[in-house]
Fold this protein.
Amino acid sequence: MQKPHKESIHKVTCYHDGECPLCQFEIKQMKKVDRQTIIEWIDITKDTAALSKAGINYQQAMDRIHVIDARHTMQTGVRGFLAIWEHLPYYRRVVPFIRLPIIFPIIELSYRIFAQHRLALTGRKNRHA
C-alpha cells in the first residue's frame, strides 16, 4: 500500500539570489534540514514575478535577503534569516543567542557589509531584471 503524499505547508517564504555561489551553498544547507518543507525557496533570478507579488523590486531583493515570516510580515537581512532559522532543526538553537541585544547589532552590521560586497566577492555584476 502506497503512503499518502504529505502535502507541504510553507510557513515562511525566502527570496534568494540563486546565482550567488555563497547564497546557493547556504540555501542548499538549509534545504537539507527543511525536511517538512516549511520554507518556500524562491530564486529571484528565475521568478521575478514572485517579487512583484510580494511588493519587492529586483534591486531590493538583490541588496538584502527578504523573507515573509510565519506572521506574514516581511523581514530583511538578519531578521529574515532568523525567521527561517527558527523553523529549522539545528539552526533554531542559535536564534536566541543572535537575538541578544549585544549580539544582534554586530551580526546585522556584518551582514550589511557582506550584502554590500557579495557580488564583487563572487565575481558578479549586478543586473537589473
